[in-house]
Design brief:
Helix content: 40-55%
Number of helices: 13
Structural class: alpha+beta
Order of helices and strands: EEEEEEEHHHHHHHHHHHHH
Organism: Roseomonas populi
Shape: elongated
Protein name: Tetratricopeptide repeat protein
Low-confidence stretches: none
Largest sheet: 4 strands, mixed
Length: 365
């Protein structure tokens, strides 16, 4: 019968670089002199003496964790023998919390801004591990997990990804398409059956499609990016269900129009850019303008992006330019930087030279 209790506490340090952990132990005197190999899958996280009050540090590159098995905590001695059954092990601290997030905890600990893990590494660890451990979770949670992971890589300089991070992005894109299509199917079924659309299905379908589209541009996968952008913008008419998706719908319309034009699909380009302009009306109508100042800030960003959709329609020759009254000033160009999205950073990092040349040929910047 196990009567001895050993407590292992692990929490992150606030520092740049890989995830740095402070790990402390509380153990009975009988365990003094023995060593613990704390492992994640086949990876040894740290080899530490089981001396009561001992504290050690460990470093973990979270992008190195790839499969579900990599998130399994192992307790071995220095000889590699499993000792998990020799004591009552109590694993505590934010690190272990991130490793075992449940579906009931996911939104609070990983998604909601005011309550989620503050460490970007724990967020990635929690989102990736959750997605792998809970394939049965509802679409909303799986879509949110992939979206959170994707934002982690979109927030990095687009030209700074190392090979391991490129592998993670490739994995993300492979997972994103069936999950986005699952969300789109849930929305379509509700509309077909004349049921109220679940706003969460719209929100996470659009959010995941948006980030996956931009990540697809990292290696100039234009057809794939176009598919994801279109999967987002087809839900523009549902913005009243998911007001939080308003800006994503317009920035996706802008990018869809540019890429469709690049791929010689003028009808799709025209339809996307017109949708980006006309979306302003339902987006404003869907908002409570007195809710808070951030609503008005979001609408400012929507209008800037919509304005670029209009300019692009004219500069790409997708609608006829009327001189009287003038539709555009001669000096106006397509300004990607006016659209609050990752697209400008991707262009500036030279990830999409073909698109950059195409924009330059049509008055783009």
């Amino acid at each position: 019968m196990i009567s001895q209790q050993i407590e292992i506490h692990a929490t992150p340090e606030d520092r740049k670089g890989p995830l740095s952990l402070v790990i402390s132990v509380r153990s009975p005197a009988e365990w003094s002199g023995r060593n613990l190999s704390l492992r994640l899958g086949a990876r040894e996280l740290v080899l530490m003496p089981l001396q009561d009050g001992n504290t050690v540090r460990a470093v973990l590159d979270v992008t190195g964790l790839q499969g579900r098995e990599d998130y399994v905590v192992g307790l071995q001695d220095e000889a590699g023998r499993d000792i998990s059954g020799e004591a009552d092990w109590v694993l505590s601290g934010l690190f272990f919390e991130a490793l075992r997030v449940t579906p009931a905890e996911f939104l609070d600990k990983v998604q909601l801004h005011h309550s989620r893990f503050r460490s970007q590494y724990l967020l990635e660890l929690a989102a990736h591990g959750f997605y792998l451990r809970h394939p049965e979770a509802e679409f909303v949670l799986r879509g949110a997990a992939l979206t959170i992971l994707s934002h982690r890589y979109l927030e990095k300089p687009a030209d700074s990804l190392d090979p391991q991070e490129v592998t993670r992005v490739t994995w993300l894109l492979g997972q994103a398409r069936p999950v986005v299509e699952e969300g789109a199917a849930l929305v379509r079924a509700a509309e077909t059956e004349d049921r109220r659309v679940d706003w969460r299905h719209v929100r996470w379908t659009v959010s995941l499609a948006t980030v996956a589209a931009h990540l697809s541009l990292y290696d100039e996968s234009y057809p794939q990016a176009l598919l994801f952008f279109e999967l987002a913008t087809r839900h523009t008419h549902l913005v009243h269900y998911a007001k939080v998706s308003a800006l994503n719908l317009v920035i996706c319309a802008f990018a869809e129009g540019l890429i469709a034009h690049l791929l010689s699909r003028p009808d799709q380009a025209r339809a996307a850019l017109v949708r980006g302009v006309e979306a302003v009306k339902p987006i404003v109508q869907a908002q409570n303008l007195m809710e808070n100042v951030w609503v008005l800030g979001d609408l400012q960003n929507v209008l800037r992006a919509s304005r670029q959709c209009y300019i692009a329609l004219l500069r790409l020759g997708l609608i006829e330019l009327r001189v009287t009254p003038p539709m555009i000033d001669d000096s106006m160009q397509i300004e990607v930087g006016e659209v609050r999205s990752p697209l400008q950073r991707i262009i500036m990092a030279d990830r999409v030279p073909t698109l950059a040349r195409h924009l330059a040929q049509h008055g783009g910047f």
